[in-house]
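#struct-queue
[09:14] JT: dropping the first one here, sequence first, then the structure tokens:
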Amino acid sequence: MDGRSGVDKPIHIQLQSRSTASFNISAPGFNASGTVNPGTPVRVSFPTWLKTAHPDSEHQEREIVENKGIHVTSTAPVSAVVYNTFSATIIGIGSFHASNDAYRALPTPMLGRDYFILGYKLTASGNPVHFVVVAVEDNTEVAIRDPGAAAPRTTVMLNQGQIFQRQTAVSTLGADLSGTRITASKPVVVYASGRTLNVPEVGDAFSDYIVEQMLPIEQWGTEHLAVPLPTAGNDVYRAMASEDGTNVTLRTASGDQVFVLNAGEFQQFETDTPTRFISDRPITVQQYAKGISTGAGTGDPFQNTIVPLGSFPQRTRIFSLPWTEYTHYVSVVAHKDSLSTVLLDGLPLSGWVDFPAGPGGEYSAATTQLQSGEHVITSSAGVAAYSFGFTSYGSYAYPGGFAQRYPIFSEIRVTQSLAREN
């Protein structure tokens, strides 16, 4: 962003648990262990040299294998949020946290062998877009296929903890790795990220770092409910198909938009109302916040995965990040029959807004501000929760959890994505 200077700081992992759990976090040249208790989240910070890019090669298109995977295990189920910090200074305003984002780390049992990348295009010159693949087991063969290609461009063998990263050149405005297909002989972790991107287009200041862990295709769904952000103007969405000939309906209060997508294709659009995505074959949906100069009012871009209907947990823990200059929120989606049972930290929610009708039943959403720290959302039925926050020149977002059988977990694999801003 123009007018900024700053220092790239470590990435952190925030652990939470419903019961006392001992944990261990290991990476090449790094190890940490401890205990996490209910209501007392634990933060572990990683050294910056574990990040997945080298300063002398940031401006080049490249593919690289490194030993930078991070492995988390625990004696009882835990949940994990990974987030970055960047200390920025704007002349005349002062120092604050900026160029942030976060993701919900998925449990090892939820990982898959077949993925599509759904990130965003390169919209800020000098800032590449990337994806990263992390091996969970030794002798994992990974094939990388460009969008629409019949044959892989690259095949690589990875051992446990090794990562493969592909990065675009920084000068190729409009470059987009979305639609890249990743298949592996064993389960892997996959991330999409961009160092600092404008959303929706070049020049829509300000830019920000975005990152999200990709869901394997087997975890995609046929119905998604997206909650508008409490900022001015439209939000940006991308919906991607896993199979050829997928019929997708975008349903808002003003009517339906219908389109057909092939495998790895996506449709991008904007809306500012509760939105229902209905498809006849599995899709995935990502939400993007806009930059402050687009009329959003506050905040900069982030990326957030919309939880498929049917993958809502009954209980989820979130952590509003520890930055006092941010305004923190949670959005909750629940079936209308269960609204009276939805509790946030033991108290009922209000201000519910209905989604358009759809085959999965009647649903509503509520958004409320939060204080920094741990929060628990419960319901008699499944709920989707989204934790996010804004400051004048920064933002973050992540989904609270996926599926009742995977709300918390005892083994995860993560890596650190590049989080640096000019």
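[09:21] JT: and here's the second one, same format:
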Amino acid sequence: MLYIKNGNYKGIIMKQLSTALSIIAISISLPSYADSFTARHMGQGFTSLTHDFTSSISNPALLTKFDQDDDFYLSLNIGVRASDEYEVIDNGEDIADELEVLEDEINNLTNLAPGQIPAAQADLHQDVDELVAKLEAVDEKPVQLGIGFNALMIIPTNTLSSGLFVNQYGGVGVVIDYDDVDETTLDDAIDDLTLVDIDDLATSAIGVGYNIVEAGLMFGYQAVKSDAYDLSIGTKIKFQRVDVFYNNIGISDFDDDEFDITDDEFLTDNDGVNLDLGLYVNWGDERQWSFALIADNILSQDVELVIADPSIDNINLSVDLKSTIGVGYQQEWFSISAELDLTDRVGFKELSAPKYASVGAQVNLGEHMQLRVGARTDLNDVEDDVVTAGFGLSPWDVFSIDVGAFTGGNDNVGIAVQLGLKI
């Protein structure tokens, strides 16, 4: 996952990128919550490795952790996240609209009576000053948007539990790169009574994004069952497609619809088969203690997006091995869990990636309602800390709805909703 903390992103970027890509100080987050993006995980501090078989999309070894009356499980989940502390999207669109008006007024100066021109020029210079102030306010301020979706179907058995899954996550980061030469261009056009074309301005908006889609089979097997402990192993065999997107548009065209992530001119993709492995161990008189280990993306995958502009380095996204451990403690009415990344998250090669430590808790209010809280910090000090909360409703332990949310620095917020059916 790629994220540059707002307080120090310029220094980090300038050190790591040597070309015009250095102005892309955008907080695009690849995995973390994106790689499962489920409401229950989000509400419980993004922990999931030691939960139960409904969380097997995070750890396939959990396919063996089910009740004997569980024969089938179906789940649909969608989540979104956003961070736009400086309201770059709204301000950028307002700036584009104001530029169109300014262009018309500058180009209309020669149609005024000679005696009206000096006053009109003074007003237009003031308009330029106000426009420049707005551009400087959003210059190199990152905005992030992300979305995730997953669906899974599980058939648990006492021999070999199995399931089907589809998992999608992605994000787009946008930053405005203000060039102060535009102020001179506009002022000179006003003074010289020359025509101006705002499409020729140097200020631009740059977007970088990704989309990862995975679909496949997962299997879980209880390898050891003893008086002292139980041990399960699991695997996910998946088809994985990775898309990387880059676009650079003039400020006069700034609009969220202009960043077309489906145009082959602006994206590249790579696909192949990949493999995830999981381990789950529980022990204690009531099997209340648990330990988990996962290794995702056993087969590394790199995607390079070639940028047509020779002044900008190509963009390289790496999907490398991600390993995480987790521990948990569970009683009838509550559970707690903690997880620690052993490796950095997936991310762009040119930029730092985070490594997380997370903790979460769940309280069961009777049999049909759950409350969740949690927190996550980045050990690499790339991301801001976040706090999470959520709840679940599971009437008759058949239907379920879960909602999770988080908030962090720089107006970073997210929410996910999950629907489940268990029979």
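[09:30] RK: nice, looked through the second one.
[09:31] RK: The chain has a mean pLDDT of 87.
[09:31] JT: good to know. The first strand starts at residue 73 and ends at 83.
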